[in-house]
Each structure stands twice: as structure tokens, then as C-alpha cells.
UniProtKB/TrEMBL annotation:
One term under GO cellular component: cytosol
Protein name: Bifunctional cytochrome P450/NADPH--P450 reductase
Organism: Colletotrichum sublineola (Sorghum anthracnose fungus)
Pfam families to which the protein is assigned, alphabetical: FAD_binding_1, Flavodoxin_1, NAD_binding_1, p450
Binding site for heme: 453
Span of domain FAD-binding FR-type: 730-960
């Protein structure tokens, strides 16, 4: 976190940088800082929800970046903590940012879904569709919800595998045919993938996005409507000022609805459409709602067709794109995913049964959705007048609660201190189940409760399928290896401008890839695991009276259709085992469970509750008091999804135990399957063949399956068909300088300066991060080159290269621009550089001198004196060599990293750096050594442009997540103060907003209290507010700092305080030169040795000290060293 770039040491960074006290030193100080009395609230224990300062009329609108509201919401959560409220032109929002508060708001008995804001604006397009409906009070929602539950059930999703594979195959072939060097805009191609998949699977419609250059008009209109809906939610002026935008939105909505109506009309006119297709549109046209007895209206069908396309493609495409980003940023994760795909799928075609076996890939997607949920929050509102959450925050009617996943998904109380790290292992099944059991709603990317995403299983199969197919056949690389994540935001978020390249694996060609993929549609590799499944689909619902005399009763409870399908399958198979079977819902068995035949019950749970056609039966069963079922012979099979950890298999287990308790006889133990990671239908078949039928035949007659029954007579027939930043490849963007000033009295020592920068939009940082700067060479250094090669300032150069280069090619460009912007002129020359120069020497003596610099004299004369190629050329004026060879010897211009010295809580769009200007006599004895970046930065003034990016802090140099419990011990010298200015500024901001914090101590070393006691006024103010206690050491005025010359001296003097804070769990941060870091380490080891001897009464060895120190590095001891 140094304030100086790693490549540019500063002469001012002394070990002796020190500090002083003003007045008498205090040995005792408060161990915690309390919020103001105002924030403590009422005597009842309730407190006011914090909020930013309001503006008249506008409320808090000025707090929100309209182009990147997510960044504003995160900034406010960082500032205010677990909860805060906003008033956006009368739209009252309460953001809850921790798992504890989110979990309370997910209680459907207290809260319900809220659609205020941008979702409400979408109602103009899709009215009371599944996503935008207000809830049960809108009948169309209830009808559509019940109709579509089975259309998106496990069986239906399984049958969508082939069309999903079809579209994913189109994408794979496109990438293969474009070749390995073509940049791929992953976001755009994944949008095409998900849009085409949703359209094909739900309504049998092909957008054919991969076969057209332009975008389908429907898609263009859809994105326009989504964007305008988001913009409308933040409008400031009256409607009359937005007539043009409203007219355009209405036209786009009309295009969406007319297109959907054309699809609907075409299906009705298709002689095979209404009955021959098994897709979502058919379900909406034909299914009768079991509650109201009516079908969905045409308008409701159109609403939901558009809803599927909008909600069903955008979030999945964003998740795909985020997943590719994380895979390419985490090589170990990438490798593990590809190894799992290879191990599971091999060289053959991807099949439906592979999906449930890809457990690590599943964990990766879960972790992606934890870090980067495309919908980063969902709205809730109170069911009644008001609710109190967290025991102290009152939520009232008219306030929309935002369950802010961007924060709650990173809650360290759930996920640990490494919550912000990307670790898929935490999301593997066993640990994921534990998290969901112990912390309900800690992972909620699909929403919550009855209004959760109905298409979750659809999206999950689509994502696993497509990612597995792509990882099986391609290797991927970033087109720009230096890409840092940038966010694009509409109604959702996704990575912005992420380009990758796709390289076919293992010598595959586009032709062989096509052959490999087509195998999944031929030779019996369809979605059904047995031909039996095909005949069972058309088997009789009732087989009463078929051959065989034994009777069987099959009852099911099912919302999505899965258990119903299994019941029908069982009844269809009964005849081959000598049974005749009847099939009905569980509710029909209420008060009448048969006793004259065995009973098989197949049911599921829905968030711990029975399916809608089993609720009456379960209510009856659980209220029995005696042995009413003593003559019932039964078996139970359960279906469930283990993500609902607390209620997993609750109803099947309840039914099984209750029947036995009331006198029933269990034929075989209860069995079950898990939709999360099992092939449900294969599990059911195995249970049926291996457990159920043998037990039924043995106990109730019938007959074993005949030998020829393995060749069934199918009830149906089937057929199958088949300029600078880009040149240098530096991921930086233009920023604006808004302040540049000196921090010291330049007459008393080296210059140290402060630079304040307005960051590019959507760029955010955290305290402890770096700002990477792409500099320009000093003008004086450029002038030296121009003189050495006798070039005029208006000279241009055109560069042609036979291979890769970071120089601008095939264009005429001023020589001065090339020298200033594209190459490192001050880089120390290499041995090869000196040897190359020797080859141009005209006389033997000159050649020998240059060869000496390349060999025996290199360390003493070149390396230690930091001679550049230019320095050497100037030392030998008689040496002549071509300019193109000079350019070839120079490395490309690179970024330098500076610790950011500000907190984003003050202004998330502004960052500052604190740096020392390097301008000292050259070690060669010739001229001066000028720091490239520090001289460049010092030349900037307000209004200048600068190219920067943000680099994330490493090695534990971050504020602790539990700042209320973890004390800070910070040690800095000179401009090493930079990251600690950010830390303390952040603490001061948090304290001003009522947060409680553990103590923070800063040991700061510099030269002179009058020369370079950096930011003294600010630190005095923060110290008075309780944000920090500062101990200084002045190397040139030790008398002013308690006799302490260096920071390590001051640490030793205050070691008793250090002991107490260490026992409270303090973390130590050190920033400065290598000499400072070593000095601090030595004094801390001395102090640790003394404390150990005091505590234990015996000495500790140096080896034991080193072992202890190595154990706390990057855990409780973090350094940032610059030299």
C-alpha cells in the first residue's frame, strides 16, 4: 500500500522518520468509541434508521449515481452499516445489508414482495405477469403460478435438455469457426444464448441470433423498455417533461406485445401446435387451473411470454458472463472445473444425466451468484402496518425494504473473515447445506418464498449444460490479460466490455466438434434414461382390470408434476409385475386409505408444506389420534431439493412416520431422491425395480417380471433429427485531476505531494487499494533522446514490425510521442543491451569498454548506478547506432501502483494518492535521477487528464471486517502514511454515523514537525473524534517526540499499551521502506519476547519467535514495503 511506486525508491523514506506528542502522553485511553446520544434512540430500545443528509424536495436523490446506483448503495452500506434509509422523491427505501436482517424480512408471515420502483414501471409492458404482479390479490398471478409450476417442474426441465443443447451447440460452433484469435464479447454472445434458449424452450420460437448480423427487433425493443423502466423510477421532473421518452416506450411495448401475439396466433393455427408440442406455451394454452377452473387469458399468456424472455434471459446471461470472468481470474478454479467435466463427460456427447454429477461446477455457479448476483437486491414490504426488525428498527407501511444481496451475501458472520474471497469450495454440497440450514436466506439470488424465481431449475440446467459443453471443448483466455472487472448496470448488473478468446481443445476442428456434439441426439442418447420412460408417458392412468389379480393403489402429492409422473410410471409398470393399479391424488385418500391392497405414496415438500393436492390429506393424517390405519400396508417415496435444508423431505417423512404411528404396516423403508444433485428419475427406477416390486410380489402376490419384458412394446413411435492503452495492453481509463498540492515545506526536505482524482464512472475502490498510474516520461529525458539522435521536435516516425510489439505500427506518429508515452527511457540497461551497443562500436577500445559493461563491470558500473541505455549512449558520444535498435532495447511503458490515501466513504468517485517526488543526483555522477511517475504526477494540475485503474490490495492489507472488535496498530514512515490516512478517514466517517469501533493506534515517523508531519491538521481532528491515537517520532527533532528518533523507538516506548491491544486481537499494519519494515519487525520480536517471558516466566528462543511471527503474517501482521 505504499504511496511510492514499487520501481521508484525515494531518498526521503528514512527508517528514522519519527513523531512527537503535544502535551503530556496518555498511557490509558478508551478501548471503544461510543456513538452520539442522538443515535442511541428511545428508551424502548428502538433507534432511528440512519440516513444521509436530506435535500429539500429531492430527499436523497443527489446521493445516487444515476448511471451506477449499485456503487452508491454499496457506498452507503459501507458508511452506515447494517441498515439505512433513503427518500428518493417520495419513494421511501430501507436497505438491509446483513444476513440477520435479510432473513427477518424474508419471513412471508411478516413481509411480502414489493414491486415499487423499476419493477413497477415494467407493469406497463407485462401487467400482472409472474415477475411484476403484486401478489395473491391479483387473480391472474395465481392462475399463472399454478399453471406454470408443472411447466417448470423437473420432468419438464429434463425434457428441455435437447433444445438447450441445440442452442449451446450453435454457440460452440460459432466460436470454433471464428478461430482462436477472434475477440469474443462474452456478454453479447451469452445474451444471444439465453434469449434463444428461452424462446425455443418455452414457445418453440427461434430468434436465430447466431445467424444474423443485426439484432432482432424484439430484442432491441426489450432492452429499450428495460432501460426506460429503470430511468423512469429515478425521474425528477413532472411527467410532462418526458413525453418523447414515454412515446418511444409505448411504441417498444407495442412491438413486444404484437410479436408475442403473433407467436400465440401461429401456435393456434398450427394443426400440430396445440397438442403436438410439449412446451410452456402449450401448458399456458391448455392447462386448467385447479383452483379457479379457468385457463390463462390471452393477455396473461402474452404478459408471461414477454416476462420469460425478459427475466429468463438477462439474469442467466449475466451469470454466465460473471462465471467466465471468475474462471479466468482464478486458474485453480478453472482447472478444477475442466478436470471435473473431463472426468464426468469424457470425449463423448454431453447428456442430461451428466448435469447432476457436475458438483464442483455447481459450487462455482453458487459462488458466482453469491459474489455477483445479477439482481443484487429484492424488494419486500410489511404485511401489516409495521414491523420491528433486529429488535430495534421499525419498518412502516409505505417503506420498501431492499434485501441488499451485494452486502448480505458477503456477511462475515455467515461466510467468515474470507467472505469477500472467491472460494467455490465453501459452496460444495455438504457445506452449502450447512450454511442454508444454520443461516436461512444467506444465499438468495433467486429471491425468496412463494415469489421466488419459478425458472430457477430451468436456468440452472441451462447454465450447467452450456458451461460444461464449452469447458469440454475449448480453452479460454482473456483477450486483455489485464482486464479488471467493470460493471454495466440496467435492471441487472453484468461485466462490462469483457472479451475472451476461445481455443479448441485437443486438436479439435469445427467439423469434429460438430460430430462430437451431434452424438447427443443419436443412438439413444436422448434425455430419457430408459425406453420404459417413453412408454410410461402414454401408459394408462388406471390399469384396473388388466391381467393379473393383485391390486395396487398409488397416490401422489405434486405441484410441479414430477411426483405425478412417477405415479403414472409406477401404475404403467404394474401390469408386467402382475398387478392392476389405480392412480389418484393424496387428497382423494383422505379418510379412505385402502386396506384391501398395498398403498404406494409418492410426494414432495414445498418449503416444508404439502403440495396443493395433498394438503387436506396431510391435515387429516396428522390429526388422527388412535390406530385408525392398523390395516394399511404402505410404502413412501419422497422427492425434494436439499437447498431447502430445514424442510428437506419434511412431508414424505411426516406421512411415513404418521401412518406407522397410527397402526400402518411399512412394506419397505422410506426412500427418497434429491433434485439438487441426483438424477431423480434414475433413482426412482432403481427403487422401483430393486426394492418395491420384489417386496410387493413377495408379500402380495403378482409375479416377477417375465424374461421377455425387457423388450417392451412401446405405446408410441419416435424419430430423431439433428490508441495507447490498447497498444500497451494496459487496462487503464481516463480520470480527471481535481486537486494537486504540496504537503511539505520544500525548503526543509524532499517534496511530498497530494493528488486528488475524479475516477471514471463505475470505478470503485476500498481503503487499502492501489491506484495504478500509466505515466509519461519526463520531458527533459525525452529531450535528451532527441538530442542524442539529432532529431527535431516535429520529427515523425512510422514503425513496422515483423512480430508482436507494444509500439504503434503502420501509422505516422511524432517521435516525441513514442518516446514520451510508449517506452521506458529510464529503465536500467541489461547486460544484453550493453552487449548490443558494443556491436555498433567502430573501434576496438570502445567495443572493449562496452563489453566490460556487459560482463565484469555490469554490477558496479551499470546495475548499482542505475544506468539506462540512454545513459550509456551519452557516456560514449562517438557511438552511433540506429534509432530502431534503440527502441527495440526499451521495455514498454508500464503502470506504477500507489496506495490510495482516501476512503471511498467520503466520496466513492474520488481517490487521492500521497507521493514523494524523486529528484536527486544521479548515482553515475552525471546529472540528476528523476522519478518517471512522481515527476509526471507533480506536473499535473486540476483539469488535467490522467490514465488510471484500481488494483485490489493483497496480503491482508485491508481493514478488518469486524472493526468494532479488532483494534488496529498502524506503523508508517514518510509517504507510507498513505493507506493509513484512508483507514483513519474511514473510521472517522463511520464514527460520525454512529458506529462503534475498537481503538486504533498510529505510529508515524518523519523528519521534522515543521517540514513533513503529513496531514497533521486532519489527524489532529480525527484524534479528537476518537478515530485514532497518534504517536510520532521525528528523526531530526527527537526531543519533540519523547526522545524517540525512529518509529521502532516509539513502539518500544509504548510497548505496554501494545501488549494490551494485542491481547484484544489487534492487527498490525506496516507501510514504509524495507529498512522501516525490518526495524519494526525487530522491535516487535523484542517486545513479543519480553511479553512471553512476563506471561510464562521463562525465556523464548529466537527460533520460536520466528515461528510465531511467520504464523501471524498476512493474518494479524500485514506489510506494504517499497524500495
Amino acid at each position: 500500500m505504499s504511496s511510492l511506486p514499487k520501481v521508484e525508491p525515494s531518498a526521503s523514506a528514512e527508517t528514522s522518520d519519527s513523531s512527537s506528542t503535544h502535551g503530556k502522553r496518555r498511557r490509558v485511553f478508551s478501548l471503544s468509541h461510543r456513538p452520539s446520544r442522538k443515535s442511541l434512540g428511545t428508551m424502548s430500545g428502538e433507534i432511528e434508521i440512519p440516513e444521509p443528509t436530506r435535500m429539500p424536495v429531492l430527499g436523497h436523490v443527489t446521493e445516487i449515481d444515476a448511471k451506477f446506483s449499485l456503487g452508491s448503495f454499496i457506498h452507503l452500506a459501507d458508511k452506515f452499516g447494517p441498515i439505512y434509509k433513503l427518500d428518493l422523491l417520495g419513494h421511501k427505501l430501507v436497505f438491509v445489508n446483513t444476513h440477520e436482517l435479510v432473513n427477518e424480512c424474508c419471513d412471508d408471515k411478516r413481509f411480502k414482495k414489493s414491486i415499487d420502483g423499476d419493477i413497477n414501471e415494467l407493469r406497463e409492458a407485462v401487467h400482472d405477469g409472474l415477475f411484476t404482479a403484486k401478489g395473491v390479490e391479483e387473480e391472474n398471478w395465481g392462475v399463472a403460478h399454478r399453471v406454470l409450476m408443472s411447466a417448470f417442474g423437473p420432468l419438464a426441465i429434463r425434457e428441455m435438455f435437447d433444445p438447450m443443447h441445440d442452442v449451446a451447440g450453435q454457440l460452440a460452433l460459432k466460436w470454433a469457426r471464428h478461430g482462436p484469435s477472434t475477440p469474443i464479447h462474452i456478454g453479447e454472445d451469452m445474451t444471444r444464448l439465453t434469449m434463444d434458449t428461452v424462446a425455443l424452450c418455452t414457445m418453440g420460437y427461434r430468434f436465430n441470433s447466431y445467424y444474423r448480423e443485426d439484432t432482432h427487433p424484439f430484442i432491441t425493443a426489450m432492452y429499450a423498455v428495460m432501460k426506460e423502466a429503470g430511468d423512469k423510477a429515478l425521474r425528477v421532473l413532472p411527467q410532462v417533461f418526458y413525453k418523447k421518452q414515454d412515446k418511444k416506450m409505448r411504441a417498444n411495448i407495442e412491438l413486444l406485445r404484437s410479436t408475442a401475439r403473433e407467436v400465440l396466433d401461429a401456435r393456434r393455427l398450427d394443426p400440430n401446435g396445440a397438442t403436438g408440442r410439449k412446451d410452456v406455451l402449450t401448458a399456458m394454452l391448455n392447462t386448467v387451473d385447479p383452483v379457479t377452473g379457468r385457463k390463462m387469458t390471452d393477455d396473461s399468456i402474452i404478459d408471461n411470454l414477454i416476462t420469460f424472455l425478459v427475466a429468463g434471459h438477462e439474469t442467466t446471461a449475466a451469470t454466465f458472463t460473471f462465471t467466465m470472468y471468475w474462471l479466468l481470474k482464478k486458474p485453480e478454479v478453472y482447472r478444477k472445473v475442466q478436470e471435473e467435466v473431463d472426468r464426468t463427460v469424457g470425449d463423448g456427447p454431453l447428456r442430461v444425466e451428466h448435469v447432476a454429477k457436475l458438483k464442483y461446477l455447481t459450487a462455482v455457479i453458487r459462488e458466482v451468484l453469491r459474489h455477483s448476483a445479477p439482481i443484487y437486491g429484492f424488494g419486500r414490504e410489511v404485511q401489516k402496518d409495521e414491523e420491528v426488525i433486529g429488535g430495534k428498527y421499525r419498518i412502516r407501511t409505505g417503506e420498501q425494504v431492499i434485501c441488499f444481496l451485494a452486502k448480505s451475501h458477503l456477511d462475515p458472520k455467515v461466510y467468515g473473515d474470507d467472505a469477500e474471497e472467491f472460494k467455490p469450495e465453501r459452496m460444495l454440497d455438504e457445506n452449502f447445506d450447512r450454511l442454508m440450514r444454520e443461516f436461512p436466506n444467506c444465499w438468495s439470488p433467486f429471491g425468496t418464498g412463494m415469489r421466488g424465481c419459478i425458472g430457477r431449475a430451468f436456468a440452472w440446467q441451462e447454465m450447467v449444460l452450456a458451461l460444461a459443453l464449452l469447458m469440454q471443448n475449448f480453452n479460454f483466455v482473456m483477450h486483455n490479460p489485464n482486464y479488471d472487472l467493470k460493471i454495466s448496470q440496467t435492471l441487472t448488473i453484468k461485466p462490462k466490455d469483457l472479451y475472451i478468446r476461445a481455443i479448441l481443445r485437443e486438436g479439435l476442428t469445427p467439423t469434429s466438434l460438430e460430430a462430437r456434439m451431434s452424438g447427443s441426439f443419436a443412438g439413444g442418447h436422448g434425455t430419457q434414461s430408459k425406453v420404459k420412460a417413453q412408454e410410461a408417458t402414454n401408459g394408462p392412468a388406471t390399469a384396473e382390470g388388466a391381467k393379473g389379480t393383485a391390486k395396487l393403489a398409488v397416490f401422489y402429492g405434486s405441484n410441479s408434476g414430477t411426483c405425478e409422473f412417477m405415479a403414472q410410471r409406477l401404475a404403467s409398470d404394474a401390469t408386467s409385475h402382475g398387478f392392476s393399479a389405480t392412480v389418484d391424488t393424496l387428497d382423494t385418500a383422505r379418510e379412505s386409505l385402502p386396506t384391501d391392497r398395498p398403498v404406494v405414496i409418492i410426494t414432495s415438500s414445498y418449503e416444508g408444506e404439502p403440495p396443493h393436492n395433498a394438503a387436506l390429506f396431510v391435515d387429516w393424517l396428522t390429526n388422527l389420534k388412535d390406530k385408525e390405519l392398523k390395516n394399511v400396508n404402505y410404502a413412501v417415496y419422497g422427492c425434494g431439493h436439499a437447498d431447502w435444508v430445514k424442510t428437506y423431505q419434511r412431508i414424505p417423512k411426516l406421512v411415513d412416520a404418521s401412518i406407522e404411528e397410527r397402526g400402518g404396516h411399512r412394506i419397505i423403508p422410506i426412500a427418497s431422491t434429491d433434485a439438487k444433485d441426483r438424477d431423480m428419475f434414475s433413482d426412482f427406477e432403481a427403487w422401483e425395480d430393486n426394492d418395491l416390486w420384489p417386496a410387493l410380489v413377495k408379500q402380495f402376490g403378482g409375479r416377477p417380471e417375465s424374461e421377455d419384458s425387457s423388450t417392451p412394446q412401446a405405446g408410441l413411435s419416435v424419430s430423431f433429427s439433428t490508441p495507447r492503452t490498447s497498444t500497451l495492453r494496459q487496462d487503464v481509463r481516463d480520470a480527471l485531476v481535481i486537486d494537486s498540492r504540496s504537503l511539505v515545506n520544500g525548503d526543509l526536505g524532499p517534496v511530498k505531494r497530494h493528488l486528488e482524482v475524479q475516477l471514471p464512472s463505475n470505478v470503485r475502490y476500498k481503503a487499502g487499494d492501489y491506484m495504478a498510474v500509466l505515466p509519461h516520461n519526463p520531458k527533459d529525458t525525452v529531450a535528451r533522446v532527441m538530442r542524442r539522435f539529432h532529431l527535431t521536435w516535429d520529427s515523425h516516425v512510422a514503425i513496422q514490425a515483423s512480430g508482436p510489439t507494444t509500439l504503434p505500427t503502420d501509422v505516422s506518429i511524432p517521435v516525441s510521442d513514442v518516446l514520451s508515452s510508449y517506452v521506458e527511457l529510464c529503465q536500467t540497461a541489461s547486460r544484453r543491451n550493453a552487449l548490443t551497443l558494443s556491436q555498433f562500436a567502430k573501434d576496438e577500445e570502445l567495443r572493449r569498454k562496452l563489453q566490460y559493461l556487459a560482463t565484469d563491470g555490469y554490477d558496479a558500473e551499470v546495475k548499482n548506478k542505475r544506468l539506462s541505455v540512454l545513459d550509456i549512449a551519452e557516456q560514449f558520444p562517438s557511438l552511433t547506432f540506429p534509432f530502431n535498435h534503440f527502441l527495440l532495447m526499451l521495455p514498454p511503458m508500464r503502470v506504477r501502483q500507489y496506495s490510495i490515501s482516501s476512503s471511498p466513504l467520503v466520496d466513492p468517485g474520488v481517490a487521492t494518492v500521497t507521493y514523494g517526488v524523486l529528484d536527486e543526483p544521479a548515482l553515475s555522477g552525471q546529472g540528476r535521477h528523476i522519478g518517471v511517475t512522481s515527476s509526471y504526477l507533480s506536473s499535473l494540475a486540476a483539469g488535467d487528464r490522467i490514465q488510471v485503474s484500481i488494483r485490489v490490495a493483497q496480503g491482508g492489507f485491508r481493514l478488518p471486517v469486524d472493526m468494532d472488535k479488532t483494534p488496529l496498530l498502524c506503523v508508517a514512515a514518510g509517504t507510507g502514511l498513505a493507506p493509513f490516512r484512508a483507514f483513519i478517514q474511514e473510521r472517522a466517517t463511520l464514527l460520525s454515523n454512529g458506529r462503534q469501533l475498537a481503538p486504533a493506534i498510529l505510529f508515524f515517523g518523519c523528519r521534522d514537525p515543521l517540514a513533513d508531519d503529513l496531514y497533521r491538521d486532519e489527524f489532529d481532528k480525527w484524534e479528537a473524534a476518537g478515530a485514532v491515537k497518534v504517536y510520532r517520532a521525528y528523526s531530526r527533532k527527537p526531543d519533540a517526540s519523547g526522545g524517540c528518533k525512529y518509529v521502532q523507538d516509539r513502539i518500544w516506548q509504548e510497548r505496554e499499551m501494545l501488549y494490551g491491544l494485542w491481547d484484544q486481537g489487534a492487527r498490525v499494519y506496516v507501510c514504509g521502506s524495507n529498512r522501516v519494515a525490518e526495524g519494526v519487525k525487530d522491535v516487535l520480536l523484542r517486545a513479543a519476547k519480553e511479553k512471553s517471558e512476563i506471561d510464562d516466566g521463562k525465556p523464548i528462543t529466537n527460533e520460536e519467535l520466528e515461528e510465531w511471527f511467520n504464523g501471524i503474517r498476512n493474518e494479524r501482521y500485514a506489510t506494504d514495503v517499497f524500495d
